[in-house]
Automatic annotation (TrEMBL), chain A:
InterPro entries: Bact_Sigma-Reg, CheY-like_superfamily, PPM-type-like_dom_sf, PPM-type_phosphatase-like_dom, PRTase_dom, Sig_transdc_resp-reg_receiver. Pfam families: Response_reg (PF00072), SpoIIE (PF07228). The modification 4-aspartylphosphate is found at residue 78. PROSITE patterns: RESPONSE_REGULATORY (PS50110). The lineage of its organism: Bacteria, Pseudomonadati, Pseudomonadota, Alphaproteobacteria, Hyphomicrobiales. It comes from Breoghania corrubedonensis. The keyword rRNA-binding does not apply. This is Sigma-B regulation protein RsbU (Phosphoserine phosphatase). Residues 28-145 form the Response regulatory domain. GO terms for biological process: phosphorelay signal transduction system. Keywords: Hydrolase, Phosphoprotein. GO terms for molecular function: phosphatase activity.
From TrEMBL, chain B:
SUPFAM superfamilies: SpoIIaa-like (SSF52091). PROSITE patterns: STAS. GO terms for molecular function: anti-sigma factor antagonist activity. It holds the Pfam family STAS. It comes from Breoghania corrubedonensis. This is Anti-anti-sigma factor.
Length: 411, 101
């Protein structure tokens, strides 16, 4: 059998080449050694195995230059070299952002464990013992190239997902009421509004909205889909489509919830649902009707509640769980100067109960403790500041707060 | 979520403690498979030591109910306390599921 000078027979060399995929075969490998014959031997082994993209440097200084200019995928270096030695080369490659992640294989005849650990401390990814054994060399080179390729793929994938999520987040924010829409509603109905929306993991399952019914009446709703992340976020888009699709011609909040339930009962798989609160505020009659599908109890402050915040009964079947679920309307007085405070469960479940900062009851007291003249904006900020004092960077669930205050009666 | 399981006769018992949330989904599904595999007639989930639950956790009970119906076992939730009890009542889950005090 004919053997080439590197000791591989031709058939074996071909088989190796076939094993190297296109990406691996074209990996850029830099060989740094001050001995020409060692470089030639290493290059020969690699070329025989199928690697086609090889460059050589005669010492650390040249190696450093090539590393910066050529961006190799892997560097094989000797330790003892003039000008810049292998240790220094590792240090410099590691301290430069462009080359910090390139795996470096160090050829060494060092056998003492402290010497070998010094090589790793300098930033080497692996060692190749001298004299060089071709199987060891090829095995280690391949392992590190494959690892690098996998990391690159994962990073690419992660970047792509981050971009996708950023786009989805922008889309989701766009289905929340916009500032000009809120300003127009404030002016039309004489209300002051404040709101906060914060998704727990990029995308959220909360949605709230306002929808004019006629010159005297305004509908407000707040919904929270179970779960969070992409699935819950997609459900908010379904809800948004349901609302803007003109499907809402309900005569009352309870009727609207029933319609929503019919729509979502067929769509949502077992175990998924939404809690929803909806009120139709009538500014001519100074009342609102509301219905709830298991939403956290909204808070109401009106001259009728003697100026204190009180929670509303909001028990009800969540949307999407029970075929033909029926909802009840309730009516509350909402004279000028009244405030309706809606929130998602994250506000009373951060951190998780029983250690939560707020309960519905303590939230009432907290709002009560503020001056009577506090605006919705001020109320919102104080509540959020208090929540964050606990050190929670971000609630574990999506957080929505909507505060709506009707204009005080002219003195 | 922590779950202690035992079996007496035709009944599978699960005692949950800690919190039951979004991230427990896979583990809870695994529990449901265990119940089905045990070929029992009923399952009682003891909630007396469950501290808190989120909407996904409540959803898991609905999944358990469906799984039981499909596989021939009945589901009972027992002794919810505090926050868990309040949420079960808020969403009228006590009307959708068999909840004992």
């Amino acid at each position: 059998m004919r053997r080439d000078r590197e000791g591989f027979d031709e058939a074996q060399s071909h088989r190796f080449s076939d094993n190297l995929g296109f990406e691996l075969k074209n990996s850029r490998i830099l060989i740094v050694d001050d001995t020409l014959t060692v470089r030639a031997v290493i290059a020969g082994y690699l070329r025989n195995y199928g690697y086609v993209n090889l460059r050589e440097a005669c010492d650390g200084a040249e190696g450093l230059d090539i590393a910066h200019e050529w961006a190799p995928d892997l560097i094989i270096t000797d330790l003892m070299m003039p000008r810049i030695d292998g240790f220094e080369l590792c240090h410099r490659l590691h301290s430069s952002p462009e080359t910090a992640n390139v795996p470096i294989l160090v050829q060494t005849a060092l056998n003492k464990s402290e010497e070998r650990s010094a090589v790793f401390s300098a930033g080497a990814a692996d060692l190749i013992s001298k004299p060089i054994d071709p199987q060891e060399l090829l095995g280690r080179v391949r392992t590190h190239l494959e690892k690098r390729r996998l990391i690159a793929r994962l990073s690419d994938f992660q970047r792509r997902m981050e971009n996708e999520l950023a786009l989805a987040r922008t889309m989701q924010e766009s289905i929340l009421p916009e500032d000009d829409e809120l300003a127009a509603i404030s002016a039309r109905y004489g209300v002051t509004l404040a709101s906060h929306y914060e998704a727990s993991i990029g995308l959220g399952g909360d949605l709230w909205g306002l929808s004019p019914i006629d010159d005297d009446r305004l509908a407000v709703f707040s919904a929270d889909f179970s779960g969070h992340g992409v699935g819950a976020a997609l459900n908010t888009f379904r809800l948004h489509s349901f609302i803007v699709g003109g499907a809402v011609k309900a005569g009352s909040p309870a009727e609207w919830l029933s319609q929503l339930n019919v729509f979502f009962y067929d769509l949502l798989p077992a175990g998924q649902f939404a809690t929803v609160f909806c009120a139709f505020i009538d500014f001519a009659r100074n009342t609102f009707d509301y219905a709830s599908a298991g939403a956290p109890p909204p808070l109401l402050n009106s001259p009728d509640t003697a100026g204190s915040f009180q929670s509303l009964d909001s028990a009800g079947y969540p949307i999407g769980l029970l075929s033909g679920a029926r909802y009840e309307n309730a009516t509350c007085a909402f004279p000028p100067g009244s405030t309706l405070f809606l929130y998602s469960d994250a506000l009373i479940e951060t951190p998780e109960p029983p250690n939560a900062v707020f309960t519905t009851h303590s939230l009432c007291e907290f709002l009560q403790s503020m001056s009577a003249g506090a605006t919705p904006q001020e109320q919102k900020e104080k509540v959020l500041n208090h929540l964050r004092k606990t050190g929670m960077e971000k609630p574990e669930d999506d957080l929505t707060i909507v505060i709506l205050k009707s204009r005080s009666a002219a003195p | 979520m922590n779950a202690q399981t035992s079996q007496t006769g035709q009944t599978h018992h699960i005692k949950l403690s800690g919190r039951l949330v979004f991230s427990d989904h896979a583990e809870f599904r695994h529990l449901l498979n265990q119940i089905t595999a045990a070929k029992v007639e009923s399952c009682i989930i003891d909630l007396s030591e469950l501290q808190s639950i989120d909407s996904s956790g409540l959803g898991m009970f609905m999944v358990a109910l469906e799984t039981g119906k499909e596989n021939g076992w009945s589901l009972t939730l027992r002794s919810p306390q505090g926050h868990v009890k309040a949420l079960i009542e808020l969403g009228k889950f006590d009307k959708l599921l068999n909840v004992e005090k």
